[in-house]
Amino acid sequence: MTENAIVKGVLALSKPECQVSTLGCRPVNPASVAADLLRTMRTIGFRSNILFAIAAAFGVVAALGRPWYGPSASPTDAQMEDLFKGVGRAFTESDGTTGWAALTTADSLIAGLACATALLLVLTLVQPLQVHVQALARWTALATFGVVVVKLIDEPGSNTLSEPRHGVFIALAAAAVLVASTLTVAAAPRRKRTPVKSYMPPPAPTYGSESSYGPPQY
């Protein structure tokens, strides 16, 4: 063994990566999980949020055909029991007045705002109109959710004679999805269409005189 090989061997053994333990050599970059097994988070895309918002808008309009308010039961001394029974009736009782019949003008306002939000979100797919309709869609979605919340709290007529039914809660959930999807679309940056680049082959190489071909001649 030459002196150069001995020196290299001594220097290699001084490295922590080359130290040998009872279990063998330790890897340089240990990893507890393989790289191909790591999970990555995926977000909903621009067009997917528009589809969710359109479905939510239809859900708000469809909820107006469900019972929104129903007659309340006679109160008793047990207030907590009356509260839980009222919550149970809100999701189980099928009788009651629909949103179209109970609301005088708010029903048309809710349906109009929901449909306007869906239309504005569709217009965001047109690139020249995207910046202008994003803010409008945000406000119409928030207005839809706000009107439903107001009608949940302030029932038509006397609040002591009626109580909410499942229709208003369906409209509230659909309006919340509409707001969430619309805010995501409204916050998206402006999409720019990049022109498709055509392939241009590189120019052919130029050669000099015939004496330059092949290996140099001596």
Give a quick set of tags describing it.
three-stranded antiparallel β-sheet; 7 helices; single chain; 218 residues; 52% helix; two-stranded antiparallel sheet; mainly alpha
Describe this structure in words.
- The chain is mainly α.
- The chain has helices spanning 3-13, 46-63, 79-92, 99-102, 106-123, 127-153, 166-186; strands spanning 20-21, 24-25, 67-71, 97-98, 162-164.
- The chain has a domain at 46-186.
- The chain contains seven helices and five strands, in the order αββαβαβαααβα.
- The chain has a three-stranded antiparallel beta sheet.
- β1 and β2 form a beta hairpin.
Distance between the termini: 43 Å
Helix content: 40-55%
- Which oligomeric form is depicted? single chain
Low-confidence stretches: none
Gyration radius over CA: 35 Å
The main pleated sheet reads as:
3 strands, antiparallel
Large-scale geometry: elongated
**Overall mean confidence score, pLDDT:** 77
Helix tally? Answer: 7
What share of the residues does DSSP label as strand, in percent?
A: 5-15%
Structural class: mainly alpha
**Which strand order do you get reading across the main beta sheet?**
4-3-5
What string, H for helix and E for strand, traces the elements in order? HEEHEHEHHHEH
Query: Could you give the count of β-strands?
Result: 5
